[in-house]
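fyi for ur records
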Amino acid sequence: MSYWITAAVALLSFALAAIIGIVLIPFLKKIHFGQTILEIGPAWHKSKQGTPIMGGFMFIISSVVATIVGYLLFKSDSMIDLTEKTAGNNAIRLLSCIIFSVLFSGIGFLDDYIKAVKKQNLGLNPKQKMVMQFVLAAGFLAMLYALGDKSTKIDFIFFDIDFGIFYYPIMILFIIYVSNAVNLTDGVDGLCGSVTFITMLAMSSICGILKSYEISIYASAVAGGCLGFLIWNLHPAKCFMGDTGSMYLGGAFVAVGLTTHQHLMIVVVGLVYILEALSVVIQVSYFKFTARQHYKKTGEKGKGKRIFKMSPIHHHFEMCGFSEYKIVITFSLAAIVFSVLGVLSVM
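which gave:
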């Protein structure tokens, strides 16, 4: 595939996302779909009260449109015969990635809608989210299986392990963890968009190396859309992506990785996401453990200790005095390092 196609797709998605913001932000303000800030968050985040949410529609729309255009260009440039089974399966894989990402975004949309209507920073409860994510993850794996991906092996570069029937429940949990990890990264102006721009560029390159060109187009479109969104989301943000956007990005990232059977690359390239979510797991687990120990000794409840000043870990850095710009730059540089390692490992 000509590299100009992936570049054109990224550029088109960038332009569309940036232009959509001109119309979308005033509309969201008009219908009063603004963010409600939690009391437990950093005090200076109170100034963000009322900032429009659901800005993720910018890159959702732009990436889908750009992918369709890119695929048509690719089909024309490569003279693909869609009647061939391989070509047809590749097209369906691409469509499956898009549908899965959009449906995952739908969960985020419900969450954002409830927040916007009730004016609370509490949307769907954890059980509701988990059930819906479980169903979508299982459905996506079933689709990949139907398309011929029956391998239950995970490649760890120097060796692989065949998990057999246990592969599917492990992957369902993996999908839920990674997609929510991307969601957790969205807590500072420009952070999730910047990191995802880098990671999706890396995934696009990896897909290109593996000759999975259709998926490479989609990854490139998502990256371009993130860059267009950042025009409106860098500090001070004029709009937030909301769970609508972050759940879409999480779904897209994990879908691209699993469709190309690059489980390890999801971890390596997305290590910033993984560590963000891990910081929450560590914080909550340690707090509950120390609270339990304290209760046994004194009979007092809720007196646990914390490892971080606040989690996810980007908030810890905020509480330590890092500016939002400094956090975005630091985490983006880390994402670049992890992405380069990921690309090099498949070359």
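The first helix runs from residue 3 to 30. thats all i got for now
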